[in-house]
Amino acid sequence: MTVPAPTLPLQVALVEDDLPLRDATMQALTLEGAEVTAFPDARAALGWLTADYPGVVVSDVRMPGMDGIAFFAQLRAIDPDLPVILVTGHGDIAMAVEAMKNGAADFLTKPYASADLIRALRAAATRRALALENRMLREEAGRGVRGAIPGTSPVAERLRSVIEGVARSEIDVVLTGPHGTGKSHAARAIHDLGPRRGRPFVAVDAGVLAHEDAELLLFGRDPAPKSTGGSVGLSRTGLIERANGGTLFLDEIAAASEALTARLLALIETRQVFPLGAASPRRLNLRIIIARLGDEDARDPLWRRLGAVQVAFPPLGERREDLPEIFRLFVARHARALDLPAPLIGEAAWRHVQTHDWPGNLHELSGYARAFVLGLADTGTPLAGSLTGERSLQQIVADFERAVLEDGLRACGGDVARLQEALKTPRKTIYDKLAKYDIRPRNFR
User: Fold this and answer.
1) Do the beta carbons of residue 8 and residue 33 sit within 8 Å?
2) From its phi and psi, is residue 54 left (phi > 0), alpha (psi between -120 and 50) or beta?
3) pTM: predicted TM-score of the whole model, two decimal places
4) How far is residue 291's CA from residue 307's CA, in Å, rounded to a whole number?
5) Which of 45, 154, 157, 215 is most buried, judged by most C-beta within 10 A?
6) pLDDT of 138
7) How far is residue 64's CA from residue 259's CA, in Å, rounded to a whole number?
8) Hey, CA dihedral for 146, 151, 157, 159, is it positive or negative?
9) Lowest-confidence segment of 47-51, 215-219, 271-275, 427-431 by average pLDDT
């Protein structure tokens, strides 16, 4: 089977201590259109290579200082997916075979033909390109779900894990929780991370469901036949049909009337839409996501008929650990939208964020962040609302301390030594606090 060549120029990091052989190999690879960076020893190469290097490493086994096998082990620590081709003498074949078992891309014995090296390089480069592409897709997916459910608390981690799991399937989903807890963002993330991400995502909110023309907006209308005197110019594709092949998101379904609820029930059970004036129904291919408050009465049978996975979203007050990250995210978003510099978050603002109950959940916190960016936030009474909940002084202080540590790590790029200096606190105390709050410095690098 012929391995397709990568579309970008072949990139090679060549590690060879023999100068004549290094120059000859560079010349042969350059003539094949490769971009070659050569190094006389493993140490020099390690100082240059990174986990996102898009090419292939070619290394001799026998080298002074660090040999090729030890070099390969170091590269595996940098990036296990980085392809390494080892060049060996006859006495090194056993070592090379062992390295192949541990993940080396290939090995060649001296003397080797340039064509054999090029063939091995192209195969390894193709695998490298696929590995980096898959990594990028995973990172984008991770950013998508983390943007929908920010935070580091166990609750946030669980929600992200559940959303990633249900997104990969075609199953319908019911999202429950109070207003402003992130259900609409989660619905979009489920669509974007799932197999229908290239298809339409249509959101239907309470404003549409409660509208006097809700049935027309949702189900559309077919033109009356000319034989009946109708006009062919009155057709309208409904929102439900526009979601065909993709995802239909019904938000705040309790706002629908009884008559509309009955039609939506029929849609859920049959996956057919019957536009006004149509002669027959049309079958649709839909994934349905429903958001509900969780306290609707028996007049809300839609979610029970859906047979879907249910995901519960807790109020923001139960995610205190996530407040600093979410607030920073909102401040950055509003500053960008308003074309203003993001202001420094001072002690008074942090106290307010950590002590307020946020009954309006994410909506209220976002509104406060916008006011903060505009310089209109009132932090003069930072303990307002804090005494109406069940949080002790110890918990309030702990939440504030966690926020200070996370903010400091972010400012120091995850460098604990710099954080220790900035906070003027013994290193052991810093590490004890980081362990207490399960804060990992590497997440801030």
Assistant:
1) no
2) alpha
3) 0.56
4) 14
5) 45
6) 58
7) 82
8) negative
9) 427-431
Given this model, what pLDDT does residue 143 score? 61
Query: Burial of 102 by CB count in 10 Å (0-12 exposed, 13-18 middle, 19+ buried)?
Result: exposed
Instruction: Give the span between the Cα atoms of 157 and 163, in whole angstroms.
Output: 10
Contacts within 8 Å (CB) and 24+ apart, 207-215: 208/239, 209/250, 209/252, 209/253, 209/255, 209/256, 209/260, 210/255, 210/256, 210/257, 214/256, 214/257, 214/260, 215/259, 215/260, 215/263, 215/276
Supply 51's token pair. Answer: 């986990």
pLDDT at 254 over 90: no
Please report where in the chains the tokens 């996370």 appear, as a residue. 406
Residues in Cβ contact with 438 at an 8 Å cutoff, skipping those fewer than 6 apart: 152
pLDDT of residue 379: 55
Go through the domains of the chain in sequence order and give each one's CATH number.
11-137 (3.40.50.2300), 149-314 (3.40.50.300), 317-444 (no CATH)
Highest mean pLDDT among 232-241, 251-260, 409-418, 427-436: 251-260
308: tokens are 């879907």
Please answer whether residues 397 and 412 qualify as being in contact, where contact means their C-beta atoms are separated by less than 8 angstroms. Answer: no
CA-wise closest residue to 379 among 341, 345, 403: 345
In angstroms, the Cα distances linking 366 to 159, 181, 182, 270, 394 are 20, 12, 12, 39, 26
Q: If pLDDT is split at 50, 70 and 90, which confidence band does 111 have? A: confident
Q: Are 433 and 401 in contact (CB under 8 A)?
A: yes
Sign of CA dihedral 268, 269, 275, 277: negative
